[in-house]
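Schema walkthrough. Field components (list of strings):
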Amino acid sequence: MNILLLGSGGREDALAWRLRQSPSCATLIAAPGNPGIARWAECIAINPSDGAAVVALAQERDVKLVVIGPEAPLVAGVADACRNAGIAVFGPSAAAARLEGSKGFTKELCERARIPTAAFVRARTVDDALAALDRFGLPVVIKDDGLAAGKGVTIAATRAEAEAAVRAAGDTELVIEQFLDGEEVSLFALVDGSHAVVLASAQDHKRVGDGDTGPNTGGMGAYSPAPVLTPELEQRAMNEIVLPTARALAAAGTPFNGVLYAGLMLTADGPQLIEYNVRFGDPECEAIVPRIAGDFAALLYAVATGGEFSAPELSPQAAMTVVVAASGYPGDPARGGPIDGIATAERIDGVRVFHAGTAAHSSGALLAAGGRVLAVTALGDTLADARDRAYQAVDAIDFPDGFCRRDIGWRQLERDHAA
Ligand SMILES: Nc1ncnc2c1ncn2[C@@H]1O[C@H](COP(=O)(O)OP(=O)(O)O)[C@@H](O)[C@H]1O
Ligand SMILES: [Mg+2]
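Field assembly_structure (string):
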């Protein structure tokens, strides 16, 4: 079948690579794609959030499956546009994408379905939000309701900090919630209506600096699996969080279809939901996808069309992704810096270098064209092996403007070391 993949980041490069290897994939098209994705797909420059343009391209090219990478097209209803045109699509409707698009929507769904999550209040004005602060101790968590590109959450240690965050937000919709103590982990599930299976677990690293210091980013690295989510905890998270969510959406007439990313806090009382995303995480996707065995395109097609699917077989190997960003990131990143040595890096066993923000110069040179530039991924028999290979690959790449964290996986590597 012909497949159209929407998006242009490292996540989509990993998806494209795996789709291209799938026996059931005939032609792979990406919109808009990037120079890494162009290794596996024909890239076509349309706006992936323009539903009419996506449908027209899919029809013109006899596409049987549309795979949506990023959240923006989902929230904009591109999956609905495809389904309305009779095209199978892996990705939720705009109604189901509210799980990511509105934190208040998700919290209320959790309340109705008795899903474990932090106690919360939805507030629509500064006065409501200030009043809500009285209901919680410190620290307290203040969140923008809508998509905020990782910049919408304040964890306030003092009442003064909390009030400042509320006033800075103004009269917009906020969620004020109780602080949860524990370790964070991400669980990815494949969902079609009330059917949901585990895909994989992962942990990411949001802060820009080693030791989890400095400002938040889109993610500086990830690894999969995350052994801190034991089989028992994973089963609890499926039974107590993911399945009730899928059933609640199906019962409301807005079934979820695609990959559901549950951000979990492993508390003393068990897993609790921090938030949902309605697509693969980036860079978690780059660490998960190389572990998935079998025909990946056929799996996504089965999910998209309500076919039969079960949890895919995963490689017993561990995977680590190290993001190489352009200096300045997450502020204003240096643009246009030359990148060389990717082919050398990919000669290391188990290594793939996915493109997150690159541009091909007319001379043939590869240039940096974004904050996060490369997602360097390696498989290994242990996480330490995967780490060693990933950093060997990073060091084989010549990108003077680039930097990366040197401690991806530190939590688990310390645990493995102590064991
Ligand atoms: N209730 C909470 N208790 C403790 N930490 C939280 C809580 N909610 C969010 N956080 C922290 O803030 C981060 C961002 O919050 P999240 O809800 O994931 O929003 P987003 O990813 O949209 O910025 C989380 O990854 C977690 O580290
Ligand atoms: Mg989050």
